[in-house]
Amino acid sequence: MKNKITVILILSLLHLPLWGDFFTRAIAEDLKNEELGIQSIAVSSVTMISGEENEICRLYTERLTADLVQHTAYMIVDRRNVERVLSEMELSLSDMSSKDNDLELGRILNAEGLICLTIAELEEGTEIIASLTEVQTAKILYSRSFRDFSCDPSTHSVDRDIEKNLRGIEFGEKDFIEPKPEGTQKSTAILHPSDEELRHKISLAYRKEHALELSNNNKLLALRERHPILFRAWVAAYRRLAYISRDKEMLILFVFSSQKITDYLKKKYPLRTRQLYNRYLEIKKRSPRKEKAVVLYLTRFRSIIRVDKNLHRYMIRMAEYSIQRMAIR
């Protein structure tokens, strides 16, 4: 196990600057002082606050793994095993409950705790929310936010359509209510990085390339704090849709399972839509499990789809992509 941990650390450092990132180091050092009653941890997920998983998330995953090895006494599960098990579990997500799947992941990996990070790139700076869940009991043992700015983020404007129209009961509240941490929740940690650390901050690349999204992320952070059930349902809707878009068969099933999208495509691309529809019938016949997952998605998240214009546009782009790229084959 010692050799395996060393390999993880070396591989992580090969892909990142030697100095790493001050956020993951602060999280690891904070966990080092906690008495959680567990010995092994797996880094289960690192996502942006929008639910997106991009290169920045992968860098944070590697850096956090390395810093946990370096600064804590926990046994850290090899992240390659996490990725392998996740890929094997993807087709078993038809129940759409990410909480249950995370706990199942921990049991398969024989990890006692699962740590997750949510990265919020805001107009003021970056905030990272870290939480650690005990696999056996599903209790949150640790939860804390880390910021590299001292002022309160201007998160007063929430998307009123989502706030007004969505109701947690429509999604099954038990799936989207996050359990409260055991004991007293720790206050937000304000980090004070040096100029050198700030210059090499991992997420700076994201901030430069997606400056226009920072205001929207502030709204998402407000939604997370004021309406956590709606926020978790919103993120689940985007993440499940991203998963569907990565599977060509599920993407085709998705296109023709929505009557509105089908009508839109028939009007704009009549010949290609007819051609792709034949493939849809074939896939529907041989892959009932995938069809069930797609229909369940559309049924469960229809309220979010109805009121969130950005999600609706994303769905239309997916449908047009399937028509333009797949119908000609």
Q: Write down how many β-strands occur, each being a DSSP E stretch of 2 or more residues.
A: 6
Counting structural domains, the number is 2
Which fold name fills CATH's third level, the topology of the largest domain?
A: Rossmann fold
Largest sheet, described in full?
A: 6 strands, mixed
Task: Specify Rg, calculated over alpha carbons.
Answer: 21 Å
Give an overview in words.
The protein is α/β, with parallel strands linked by helices and 329 residues long. It has 2 domains: 233 residues, ABC-type transport auxiliary lipoprotein component (Rossmann fold); 80 residues, no CATH class. It has a 6-stranded mixed sheet with strand order 2-1-3-4-5-6. The termini are far apart.
Summarize the structure.
The chain has 329 residues and is an alpha/beta fold.
Write the layout of secondary structure elements.
Layout lengths: L1 H14 L6 H11 L7 E9 L6 H17 L3 E2 L2 H11 L8 H12 L3 E9 L4 E9 L5 E8 L12 H6 L7 H4 L12 E2 L4 H5 L4 H6 L4 H13 L1 H19 L1 H10 L1 H10 L1 H17 L1 H13 L1 H6 L1 H18 L3
Parallel strand pairs: 1-2, 1-3, 5-6
Antiparallel strand pairs: 3-4, 4-5
